[in-house]
Amino acid sequence: MNPIRRPLIAGNWKMNAGGQDGCALADAVAKAVKEYDQVDVLVSPPFTALAAVAHVLDENKSKVAIAAQNMHAEPSGAFTGEISSSMLKESGASWVILGHSERRQLFGETDEMVARKVASAMAAGLRPIACVGETLDQRDAEATL
């Protein structure tokens, strides 16, 4: 029997709403989707707001999930400025966005790098969202399907 696919609405906050604004936004999202049970919803705040947003959502007894915007493929080590899967989980994230077009374009992430991150996320019990899109120029030129 095929599992029923549920719609997922994911809001990537990018480099916005990293402090109190993030808590207010999370509270508003939680209240807005409280009555909806046919769709899964997740928010993806910046790293600096993960734990605070998780707290707000817990206080609201919300079903809204939390995704991190990236992670390192290694579980620990000397990787200044990076974040591990266990750190994400401790902050309240249950999902992680990997291979976003901006990460690929601005930081040179490759399919191989993203594959390592996806495998690491899954091994740690995080649900990865593996991005496989195109650039805006490619999309505008209808260069990809």
Q: Which overall shape is indicated by the principal axes computed on the Cα atoms?
A: globular
Termini separation = 30 Å
The major beta sheet can be summarized as: 5 strands, parallel
Rg over C-alpha atoms, rounded to the nearest angstrom: 16 Å
Please tally the helical runs, counting DSSP H or I stretches of 4 or more residues: 6
Helix content: 25-40%
Low-confidence stretches: none
- Output the strand order for the largest sheet: 1-2-3-4-5
Helix/strand structural class = alpha/beta
Beta fraction: 15-25%
Question: Describe it for me?
Answer:
With 145 residues, this protein is an alpha/beta fold. 39% of the residues lie in helices and 15% in strands. The chain contains six helices and five strands. It has helices at 20-32, 50-59, 85-91, 101-107, 111-124, 136-140, and strands at residues 8-12, 40-44, 65-68, 95-98, 127-130. Strands 1-2-3-4-5 form a five-stranded parallel sheet, with helices on one face. β1, α1 and β2 form a beta-alpha-beta unit. α1 (20-32) runs parallel beside α2. The mean pLDDT is 93.
